[in-house]
Amino acid sequence: MLDRVLPFVVSTAILVLDQITKNLIKAHVSAWQTLIVIPGFFNIVHAENPGMAFSLLADASGLWRNVLLIGLAVCVTGFVAFLLVRPGPTQHWLVRLGLALVLGGALGNLYDRAVHGTVTDFLEIYAGTHFFPAFNVADSAISVGAALLILDIWRTRERSGQVVNVP
Predict the structure, then answer these.
(1) CB contact at 8 A, 77 and 164
(2) Which residue from 17, 78, 107, 128 has the highest number of Cβ atoms inside 10 Å of its Cβ?
(3) Is the pLDDT of residue 163 over 80?
(4) What are the catalytic residues?
(5) How many structural domains is the chain composed of?
(6) pLDDT at residue 158 is higher than 80
């Protein structure tokens, strides 16, 4: 029972943390204002992203873009939730944690897009003139969750004797 519930507790915690941090940024940092935290490496910036990751589709028509992105997010969250509740062999804890992080992050960004029409990004990492696009807690959870899923695939193949080529 706990094995089935715990991933949804993790997902809910990610969703809540994501919304708290986004609301703090909206309340205390003006749009496009930059707060230097670690000079030459890390800033807090209030960015509203109407597109998806890396601002893809940001310039697309508003209604078309929102229908596509909300529809895609609903499909992803539904599929991940199905993977977490489906009966069958118990998944490794790494898979369940990875799926929980992806689900929580997807729900956080889905909520923003459905309610506000944009996703609030505020973490900015850079080196010199090279900037990584601004992101948020939900994006971080999705990335860490995806990395855990890849790690589990690699671990499973390695254990089964299949050769894993890493460039």
Answers:
(1) no
(2) 107
(3) no
(4) 121, 139
(5) 1
(6) no
Pairwise CA distance, residues 11 & 124, whole Å: 24
DSSP letter string over 96-115? HHHHHHHHHHHHHHHHHHHH
21-64, pLDDT tens digit by residue?
A: 999 999 999 999 999 999 999 999 999 987 666 555 555 566 66
Q: Are residues 111 and 151 in contact, defined by beta-carbon separation less than 8 angstroms?
A: no
Residue range of the domain that includes 19? 2-27+45-159
pTM of this prediction?
0.86
Q: What mean pLDDT is predicted for residues 4-32?
A: 96
Q: Could you read off the pLDDT of 133-151 as tens digits, one per residue?
A: 899 999 999 999 999 999 9
Q: Which two tokens stand for residue 107?
A: 């729900």
**Mean local confidence (pLDDT), 91-111:** 94
Residue positions counted in the chain: 167
How far is Cα 61 from Cα 33, in angstroms, rounded to an integer?
A: 26
Asked if residue 37 belongs to a domain, the reply is no
Contact between 6 and 96 under an 8 Å Cβ cutoff? The reply is yes
What is the secondary structure of 36-63 as a DSSP string? EEETTTEEEEEEEESSSGGGTTTTS-HH
Q: What is the dihedral of CA 96, 82, 18, 7, to 10 degrees?
A: -30
Dihedral of CA atoms 84, 90, 94, 96 in degrees, nearest 10, equals 10
